Inverse folding.
């Protein structure tokens, strides 16, 4: 569950157990058990990208004003960066595709760039060629 309070790029992220199989937590109004407060402090944006079991991937501006991709193990609470913040380009959108890849939409000066990286470690898998200067927006995909 993503919780926002205003128009700032800042939110909280809570993980709930909706089937009752996980141990823990606080009862919510719906009877679900709060499993983990993945992000429990205001100040940064965290947009869910994908998860593999207890590893949850986020597109975030935490310590990265041009955005990056980070993963948290919700069992241990340990975070690590998967795709570091670019020194020059702004990361605008992230999608998980082909089960194990990230599509990264960057704005570089006035032109969009689309790169592909490995979900597990952010290893570069190349760039998708676009036809000239312009911007891409509204990318969508399914993970499988």
């Amino acid at each position: 569950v993503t919780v926002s309070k205003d128009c700032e790029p800042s939110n909280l992220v809570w993980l709930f157990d909706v089937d009752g199989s996980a141990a823990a937590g606080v009862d919510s109004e719906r009877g679900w058990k709060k499993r983990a407060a993945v992000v429990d402090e205001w100040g940064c944006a965290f947009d869910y990208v994908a998860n593999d079991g207890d590893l949850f991937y986020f597109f975030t501006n935490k310590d990265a004003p041009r955005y990056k991709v980070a993963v948290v193990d919700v069992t241990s609470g340990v975070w690590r960066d998967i795709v570091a913040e670019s020194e020059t380009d702004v990361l605008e959108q992230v999608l998980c595709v082909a089960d194990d890849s990230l599509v990264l939409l960057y704005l570089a000066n006035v032109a969009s760039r689309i790169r592909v990286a490995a979900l597990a470690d952010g290893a570069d898998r190349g760039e998708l060629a676009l036809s000239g200067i312009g911007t891409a927006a509204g990318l969508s995909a399914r993970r499988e």
In short: The radius of gyration is 16 Å. The mean pLDDT is 89. The longest strand covers residues 90-97.
